[in-house]
Design goal:
A hairpin with a 6-residue loop joins strand 1 and strand 2. It contains 16 helices and 5 strands. The chain has 3 domains: about 1-65, no CATH class; about 75-175, Tyrosine recombinase, N-terminal domain (DNA polymerase, domain 1, Orthogonal Bundle), CATH 1.10.150; about 185-350, hpI Integrase, Chain A (Orthogonal Bundle). The chain has about 350 residues and is mainly α. The strands form 2 sheets. Strands 1-2-3 form a 3-stranded antiparallel sheet, with helices on one face. A two-stranded antiparallel ribbon has the order 4-5.
Length: about 350
């Protein structure tokens, strides 16, 4: 265990014993402390003691040691948590939607844990357990914890707290199933159920034959659609910006949607949310539809994209061509760095392999 100063702050460092490395997930623990050596030395000693007690708990040498260690008030500060929220938000570089969501989550947490010195294992554990009792899903509780953890790291950077949040605040739960593609029976059932919602039915059909993401379709401008192709701009990534040949099965639908649009979008009549996303409301409609058919979270609207990709692979379409249609990055240097991409004819031939019987 050492106290080092690689740059302008002192840092605590401790090698993790080999027998607990798998539990800790690291070989070396490091924690930035303060610019002041005397204060850093005090925090270093406490932090190392915490780490060693955690090692002991992983070995089974202590009972409930996690809670005892983390209930120590490291900084006796009665400051209100909300006094630091805006400072935390201003230094973050995330999407506005994420910013608003995380502000809400930390604000809600601050109603139970109001001051800096109240941040401890017991208080957090009780609060999150109460959320679960109120009906919050495990995934939602974890998202609140993730937001607060980022806020806590900000408090640590400005020397308001020391150490990490306890690792076992929220009980572990088996991860959700991986997202799966729809099979032909699924698609038949979904289209039949959506028949009374013409707008949603059209969106499903476009997804089936383009492989586009839901927001790509909902934000597609009419002036980016020709008789032969659609063009995706301002996509999720640089590779997302692409030209997709129109499958023969949807050419009439696309031209009809373009002709009848009254707002300049192929999917006309959708209202954007406050972040400018037009797929939010119709995406929820699809969620309600698929729940009526008893689909779980392994199959979502994005599953149409997976079905599309699966059909391309099963038809023997080269991966580079499929990537250009789907808007995926190419990891290899030859194709990803130097290639100008697949030709329109290559993509058109691949698209025409898509069939739903």
């Amino acid at each position: 265990m050492v106290l080092i100063r690689p740059k302008n702050r002192w840092v605590a460092e401790l090698k993790v014993p080999a027998d607990v490395q798998s539990a800790v997930g690291k070989k070396v623990l490091r924690e930035a402390l303060s610019e002041d050596k005397a204060i850093s030395q005090l925090r270093h000693n406490l932090l190392v003691a915490q780490w060693k007690l955690k090692f002991a708990s992983y070995r089974g040498d202590y009972i409930d040691i996690e809670e005892k260690v983390n209930d120590v008030v490291i900084v006796d500060d009665k400051s209100n948590i909300m006094d630091f929220v805006e400072g935390w938000l201003k230094q973050r570089q995330v999407a506005p939607k994420t910013l608003d969501s995380d502000r809400h989550k930390v604000t809600e947490i601050s109603k139970s844990i109001k001051t800096i010195d109240a941040i401890n294992h017991k208080n957090l554990r009780v609060m999150f357990e109460q959320m679960a009792v109120k009906g919050f899903t495990h995934r939602t509780v974890k998202s609140y914890l993730a937001a607060f953890n980022d806020f806590y790291k900000y408090l640590r950077r400005i020397d308001k707290v020391n150490g990490d949040l306890p690792a076992n605040i929220v009980a572990r739960k088996k991860l959700n199933k991986d997202r799966l593609p729809f099979d032909l029976i699924d698609i038949f059932q979904l289209r039949k159920e959506a028949a009374s919602d013409k707008q949603l039915s059209n969106l499903i059909k476009l997804a089936m034959y383009t492989g586009c993401r839901i927001e790509e379709l909902c934000s597609l401008h009419c002036d980016l659609v020709t008789n032969e192709h659609i063009e995706i701009v301002n996509g999720k990534t640089k590779a997302s910006n692409r030209i997709i040949p129109i499958h023969p099965k949807i050419i009439r639908l696309i031209l009809k949607l373009k002709r009848n649009s009254n707002d300049g979008y192929i999917m006309s009549g959708l209202s954007p949310n406050k972040y400018g996303h037009r797929s939010n409301a119709i995406g929820k409609r699809f969620g309600r539809l698929k729940r009526r058919l008893f689909y779980d979270n392994s199959k979502v609207f994005h599953s149409f994209r997976k079905t599309f990709a699966t059909q391309l692979e099963q038809a023997g379409v080269p991966e580079g061509v499929a990537a250009d249609i789907l808007g995926h990055d190419k990891p290899t240097m030859s194709y990803g760095l130097y290639s100008g991409g697949s030709s329109f004819q290559q993509k058109k031939s691949a698209i025409e392999e898509i069939s739903y019987g």
